[in-house]
Amino acid sequence: MSIAFTPWPRALAARYRAAGWWTDLPMTEMLQRQCRERPHAPAILCGEREISYAELDRQSTNLAAWLHRQGLRRHDTALVQLPNVAEFYIALFALFKLGVAPVNALFSHQKLELSSYAKQIQPKLLIADRQHQLFGDDAMLDELRAISPELNLHLFAHDTLEAALQNDAELPAGAGPSDAAEVAFFQLSGGSTGTPKLIPRTHNDYFYSVRRSAEICALGPHTRFLCALPAPHNFPLSSPGALGVFHAGGAVALAPSPEPLACFELIEKHQVNIAALVPPAVALWLQAAPGREAQLQSLRLLQVGGASFAESMARQVPAVLGCKLQQVFGMAEGLVNYTRLDDGDDIVFGCQGRPMSDGDEVKVVDEAGHAVPVGTPGMLATRGPYTFRGYYQAPEHNARVFDNEGFYYSGDMVVADENGYLRVVGRVKDQINRGGEKIAAEEIEHLLLQHPQVAQAALVAMPDSMLGEKSCAFIVPRGDGLRAVALRRFLREIGVADYKLPDRFELTPALPLTHVGKIDKQTLRAQLAAAAGA
Ligand code: J2J
What is the mean pLDDT of residues 455-461? Predict the structure, then answer.
């Protein structure tokens, strides 16, 4: 049975096809084409390995054939957790070739996140890394099996995965990708709710976003892209990211992290000409670059997105790094905005771009849902040929974040200008954006409330000069003697990703309330901002 998801209405789907946005081709097509046109060109540069398109194709077919022999079939699902290594893309194409839809968890994810994804998709396959602390032994595998009883296939990098990639095998007739209108994989939502939500992305919609992004960024066979953000993240995967590079016939150089000195070496070694970063990483690059300009000579374009980027820092990029800046405001749910390569300085430095597609419909509305005038802040709502129509198996949440015309409310406050360029000016969703990593306040509050000595909990953003925002948990304790270290240890033991651990705990006898009796986070944020300013 194909994987259930909320489809686009028929009339819109017809429009997206008529416009040529949806091509009804699966994403495996980009690999096939490069195998015809430039089989020996490098696709992936990983450590000392240079993997050509032919090799990417061969290894992904081998893996797909192995998985097929073990009984994996079209419309099955997989949980994948790999770091920034070539195997991430090889596995992704292998699963596309079989029509198996993965959730690609971040390498920073821990027990809680993996368990939640497994619960939602009931995977039959796990691909993970023995070098991840969770998979040094089989305890986590057993836990995942208890959550997903049909999970009877697993492959580990640094263990069994390598052999499955190298044993030459053919895919049998009948095996092949899912239909382009079906779910290709699940993207991860930054979220604002108690459980991390999944975003079904179809071949048609995602492939379009990749092609259009590659076009806007003028990618081609000359492209050398540095992937230094977590590879599964929507930005370095599709905006235009690694998939955009494969579509264009260029090469992706993998860095384990955005740490500047290692990245600068890779830029020099591989003659990288485009890189994608979140703002805190840009700050580190700007600090590290003086005196190292020679290493950065090949760099033509730096894309920055994921969190708000100060104009003063944006203006330093060309002078200090010697390349053009492109601002990117996107979301794993769909809509991606870019400043264009030929936009003037005021636009490139002063806003977050405009929608990439003529098919993107954007509304900026007030609380009543009425459009606000140009230049006025309002909530962003959008629909279009690559913006999803519903989170996976989440009808109640979907009812809250979509209106009856199918517009998705991203929770961002934006200001649009007369040409449709957007500036992100705030947020209405209950989320902390910790240097591009998103934390759903409710998720962490629910976990804190499981501690017997926590009576009330509220997680709010606090300003941070490096990350933009960090998280602060206000706690009303039950009884005496509760300490921050105990709470941090408690969250660690539950198995929550490190970036979600509150940076600060404030124990307080009571929390301020709004007039309807909800915790008044605005007051808490103002307290933190005042304390930071003092
Ligand atoms: C301010 N806030 C931003 C920006 C995203 C490309 C680029 C980024 C993402 C991403 C992505 C921002 N300025 N330039 O998927 O394809 C905040 C907004 C948004 C949320 C989405 C892509 N760029 N944001 O960051 O799904 O609040 O995607 O709604 O992780 O990040 O987060 P995410």
Answer: 98
